[in-house]
Amino acid sequence: LCFSSQGMLISQDFIDDLAKSLEQQGIILEQYYPELAHGQHEISVRHRPVMEAASQQLYIRETIRAVAKRHGLQVSFAPKPWLDQAGNGGHIHFSARDDEGNNLFYDPRDPYRLSIMGYQFMAGILFHLPALLALTTPTVNSYQRLVPNAWSSSYACWGPDNREAPLRIASPIKTQEQQSVNVEFKPADLTSNPYLALGALIAAGLDGIAHKLDPKEPVLSNPDDIPASEREARGIIRLPGSLDQALDHLAQDAVLQEAMGEMLVQSYLAVKRSEVAFYQNKSPEEIAAWHRFRY
User: What is a GO molecular function of this protein (predicted)?
Assistant: First the structure.
């Protein structure tokens, strides 16, 4: 029962146990609610420095599995476990701080409270996004989720509180704008290696700052509803529709390849190409079923 207290009550024992287990590890659970799909739940945890955040994600995933087993439940983090249900994401919120802890993405003069550095960082991510997807949505099943009108993002664009945009400026907390303004990256899921995903996002964002890239005008509506001619004029490109396409972009992206190193890039491409080949002749239903409880 989506966003309903009834859904919370059904799963209360499991969620209470999970919250306690996370607290014992020093992981601060900030928000929980039941989501759209049957038995689907979402949690948000306190932000951490990037390496700690990557490790914390792994701890959380394993904790959820262990607590679920205690309650006789089975967990799926697969991007699209069932084709007729909403998928699972692993959205990433980010900002940048200086040595004194000041938010470098904050500018009170901007209508969205985002600084020039923040816009340039976003622009770098948008520029490299077709290749980034190979690292942030790295399975064949990932692209069963990344379709238009699914709140997951299918076009390269940004927008304030636009659920169909891959990058959105999340509404800051009123009276705490300086501390809370941040950008959300939506085309990420929990089949990814968080160290690779976050490292690639940083490399792309820093490239945007180095080259003073411009993210262009915000998209304030569903990009799939914008006429194709207007999307083309505004540079709103369709993102890769398959892992194979994303891997092709990664193989041509010099910035991400330099950040990863040649050996890692070639090994990663080889492993992922073998996964693409394995699923080549499988139906959409078979692909979802194969991933359902592997992740």
Answer: glutamine synthetase activity
